[in-house]
Amino acid sequence: MRKNIVAGNWKSNLTVNQAKSLILDINKYEDNLDCEIVVCPPFPYIGFSRRVNDGGYKVGAQNVSKFDFGAYTGEITAEMLKSFAADYCIIGHSERRKYFNESDKDLKDKAERLLRNEIQPIFCCGEVLEDRERQKHFEVVKSQIENALFEFSENQIKQIVIAYEPVWAIGTGKTASPEQAEEMHAFIRNLIKEKYSQSVADEISILYGGSVKPENAKEIFAMENVDGGLIGGASLKADAFLEIAKSF
Ligand code: PGA
Hints:
41% helix, globular, 12 helices, single chain
C-alpha cells in the first residue's frame, strides 16, 4: 500500500550555516510519525544533510541532469546523486518548467535516469490559473503525466511519486481547497488505473503542494487520495515543517 510522505523543498534558499542549523533542528523529530519525511536541500548541502541523518528521514535533490556523465558544464547527474545516497529527486517543478523551459521529454529523460540509479522521482504537475479558469486543468495535468511518464513499465511507474501542485497556489498563500485537491488526486489515480491497473494506482503516493502550512495540512491530508505534501516556504522552519508532518 502507498505511504504518506511529507517532503520539504528548500528551493534556492539558505547559506551553508543556515542549512546546517535547519538540518540539526529537523534531526530532532520524533520517530513515531505516520509519514516518511523527505528533505530536499540545494545540491551543495545534500552531502551533510545525509551525514547527520541517523537513518530517520530521507534526502532528495530538487533537479537532475537529463544527461549521463559527460561534457555538460554545470549539470548534476543521477549517478552523482546516487553516490550521495539521495533517495528522491524532485523533477518538473513548475518553477523549472517556467524559468528553465523544461519539456515533457526532458522530464521523461530525467525520470528514466533517476529510476536507473534507484532514486525515486517526485514528479510535479499542475495547471496555471488561466488553465483552471478555462476549465482546462484536468486536460493539462493529464497531458503532463501521459507525456512524461506513461511509457514507463509497471515496475518503473510504481517507483514514482506524483506531486500535484496547482501553480496558482505555490508561494501565493492561496491553497487549493481540500475538495479541489481531492478531485484532482482522484483524477490522477484514475488515469494510472486506466493505463496500468487498480493495484498500481493504489500503490502510488500522490502529494499535494501549494501553500501547505501547519494550519491547513490536517484537512488536506485527510482527503482519501492525498498521501502527503510537497512543502516549500513552510519547510524552511523546522517547527512548521515537523508540525505539518504530524498532521496525519
Ligand atoms: P509553497 O511551495 O509551499 O511555498 O507554496 C510549494 C512548492 O513549490 O513545492
